[in-house]
Amino acid sequence: MKKLLISPSKMALGEQESQIYQNILKQSSELSLNLMAVKVENHPDDFLGWCYELLNASKDRINYDLLESQQLPVLKKLHDQLIAAISFLQLKTLRVAPWPVVSAFIQQHKAHIALDEQLRLTHYISAIRSQNLKEMIPEDRLTFAGKHTAALDPAHYDFDVEWFASTKTAKGFHQMLADLPGAFDDALSNIPLEGDVSQSDYQQFVIAYLAAFNGSDEKPTLAPATRLLAMRRPDVFTPITNAKLDALCAAIGIAKLNNRDFERYWQDIVETIHHMPWFKMAVHEDELEQQLGAIKALLPCFFYYADKNTANNSNYIKLLTKPKRSTSSTTKTVRRGKESAEILVDRALAADDMPEHIRAKRDSIISEVEKGRSVSETISLMRTIFG
Q: Same domain for 173 and 292?
């Protein structure tokens, strides 16, 4: 372990990497005895590999039984520093990486980043993108805006809607979106669905987006706006979250944005990413590359740290593995509006293999779905009863 801890001092680190290394060393010093007890056989000769190895050693191989209670927050901070460092280093490669390197990285990490699931989300968004938000059922609107709800039936929404910048903490934004979806439609209408998007288009979006909050106590913030933009044009706009903004800004070489920097978002995030080699030279040689090329502004999201637990922490996976509903009176039921229930049921009944006698039970199925039962659960019950 001692050899591992000092090895970056022999690497040719840049100024940012050196500062990261010193911060990690400072945190590690309070855990030195515990870390020294961890056997290390892998000694990477690059800083990114070093961060991965130290994270693995301090997270999966350290003896937690020997840690004092006051050391646990220190260990957590060390892990956070290493994860942030890995995100920074991986994102930093985007400055100079050609398209084949970017594409290969994504394919190499597809299991950890739940690539197939994330692409199912972008495919779903592409099918509803042309709809106005005010015309969407609530479940689709939240899918577009990036907030998970238990009402999202995993049989229909087979993805976590919070991939590509979750907005679950933007409570004020979601209240405004629920109350005045048309105001956000007015903003998004300034961004064309196809073709070039100009700075003027974006500026008009910002004016209308800010106006949506006029007369409200809620303050318009940047992160949820970038989620809407990214879903409208995933080939143009990169979504941001406050939690990951430090790593992104440092990696692409700009001063950190604050949550009201609408002007700098276009200049420093959008334009900077558009000028990167991989972004300009994206090629579509196979089906996967065609899919990635269509959402190329979202690709930086795949370069944040992910591990074997990331995919399993998907809200979609959690819903799939959620225990069956209890019959207890204390069980919380998620009710749906009639319009949502009708649309979700009709989508399921449209399946080619759906028996006609089950389709004939449409009204009964809708009634159960309105009460909170999932579409798949209700149809399965109908099949059991009626064959």
A: yes
Angle at 311 between CA 89 and CA 99, to 5 degrees: 45
Radius of gyration of the chain (CA): 24
**Chain segment 232-247, per-residue pLDDT in tens:** 999 999 999 999 999 9
Rounded Cα gap, residues 122 and 335, in angstroms: 26
At residue 383, what is the residue type?
R
Distance CA 303, CA 299 (A): 7
Q: For the chain, how many structural domains are there in total?
A: 3
Residues 273 and 380 in one domain: no
Which among 76, 94, 112 is the end of a domain? 94
Residues 157, 283 share a domain: yes
Residues 300 and 165: their CA atoms lie apart, in Å, by: 11
Return the half-sphere exposure (C-beta side, CA atoms, 13 A cut-off) of residue 38: 27
d(CA 222, CA 224): 6
Same domain, 312 and 370: no
- pLDDT digit string, tens, across residues 4-51: 999 999 999 999 999 999 999 999 999 999 999 999 999 999 999 999
Q: What secondary structure does DSSP assign to 108-147, as a single string?
A: HTTTTTTHHHHHHHHHHHHHHTTS-GGGS-HHHHHHHHT-
pTM of the predicted model as reported, rounded to 2 decimal places: 0.85
E strands within the chain?
none
If asked whether residues 30 and 114 sit together in one domain, one would say no
